[in-house]
Amino acid sequence: MNDNQLIALDKSISRLSHLLMLNLDKNLLTTLPPQIGKLPHLEMLYLNNNRLNVLPPEMSKLPNLRQLYLSGNQLTGLPYEYDKFSQLKKLTLFENPLPIELAFLKLVNQPAKIINRLNRQMLIQKLEEEKRYNSRTNLIGGGLITVFIIIILVLLVG
Predict the structure, then answer these.
(1) Would you give the DSSP letter of residue 21?
(2) In this structure, what DSSP letter does residue 15 have?
(3) CA–CA separation, 85 vs 137, rounded Å?
(4) Do 93 and 73 contact (CB within 8 A), yes or no?
């Protein structure tokens, strides 16, 4: 169902209860119905290049979700329940206006494996953005966010 100019996902998606993979890349989706959480066997969900600005909390009811692709959307946050994705191995968040501060606040009490889920490129991108901002405002040192980013990069690379 990718690249079909879809503006909404029908609630009847929940009838596909044995679905393993759903590719909704390159559509015009701004939201997902709560029924997305009624796909207990779903392992891969592709939502790249849509217009999503929020994810429904019901997504936390996807116990087998291993890969979640969210790049190229309008996400400004992650669902509070995202830490319930116990099987999640890959999460992409490129090109989203996700505040890095929000990501770190939500990661403070999470195990290191969740930190590894964050896309390395996203961290580098946010570091570069902060560096450009600091050069325009004559700030020295880059602040607390830069320190967090450097620590995370060291953990990821090391």
Answers:
(1) E
(2) G
(3) 39
(4) no
What CATH fold (topology level) applies to the domain 11-98?
3.80.10
Residue in this structure with the two tokens 């992409």, named with its chain if needed: 92
Instruction: Read off the pLDDT of residues 78-97 as tens digits, 9 standing for 90 and up.
Output: 766 766 777 888 888 888 88
- The tens digit of pLDDT for each residue in 8-17 reads 999 999 999 9
Angle at 81 between CA 78 and CA 72, to 5 degrees: 25
d(CA 142, CA 25): 35
Q: Residue 105 — very low, low, confident or very high, per pLDDT cuts 50/70/90?
A: very low
Q: Is the pLDDT of residue 111 over 60?
A: no
8 Å CB contact between 7 and 28: yes
The two three-digit tokens of residue 30, written as one number = 């701004």
Residue 61 pLDDT > 50, yes or no?
A: yes
Number of H helices, E strands in the chain: 4, 4
Write down the domain spans for the chain: 11-98
**The whole model's pTM is what?**
0.66
Query: Which run of H or of E encompasses 67?
Result: strand 67-69
SS3 content of the chain, % helix, strand, coil (to 5): 40, 10, 50
